[in-house]
Amino acid sequence: MTTEPSQNPRPAALAPTAPDPFDQELCELVLDTAPRLFAVVQVCGEGPADADGWVVAWGLVDSDGPTHVIGIDGRARMTLVSPERALRHFAGRPGITSRLVWLAQPGAAGLDQAEAA
């Protein structure tokens, strides 16, 4: 039995490259200062069986700054003191309540778009 050489041009084992310390520091800075993202959803219905909900706006808030909210249709844009204030703007019709739904805190950052996905 004869063995042919591998057609793979890559070596069998590649040593992992250590991340650049400055790149790592940048990623940590981004994670430490990342704003939180939330959705404003409207809900109607009396109970879980007949409840319905939909997203009406997206918001961005920094830990020590204002809250920015934009409606999904692009017409409502506002800067508010807190995310909870957005609920007032999207409630008001009888039988409809508004809620905030927070996206999870980010856990990873990368300098390339592929790394962040």
What descriptive keywords fit this protein?
3 helices; 117 residues; five-stranded antiparallel sheet; single chain; alpha+beta
Structure at a glance:
The chain has 117 residues and is of the alpha+beta class. Helices cover 20% and strands 30% of the residues.
Descriptive report:
The protein has 117 residues and is an alpha+beta fold. The protein has a domain at 35-108 and 110-114. Helices cover 20% and strands 30% of the residues. Strands 4-3-2-1-5 form a five-stranded antiparallel beta sheet. The longest helix has 13 residues, at 21-33. It starts with 20 loop residues before the first helix and ends with a helix. 8% of the residues are buried.
Bin the strand percentage: 25-35%
- Give the structural class: alpha+beta
Terminal-residue CA separation: 45 Å
List the uncertain runs.
Answer: none
Which strand order spans the largest sheet, edge to edge or round the barrel? 4-3-2-1-5
Residues in helix, %? 10-25%
Q: How is the quaternary structure best described?
A: single chain
Summed over residues and divided by their number, the pLDDT gives a mean of 82
Structure summary, number of beta strands: 5
* Element order: H for helix, E for strand: HEEEEHEH
Largest sheet: 5 strands, antiparallel
Number of helices: 3
Q: What overall form do the CA principal axes indicate?
A: elongated
CA gyration radius, whole angstroms: 23 Å
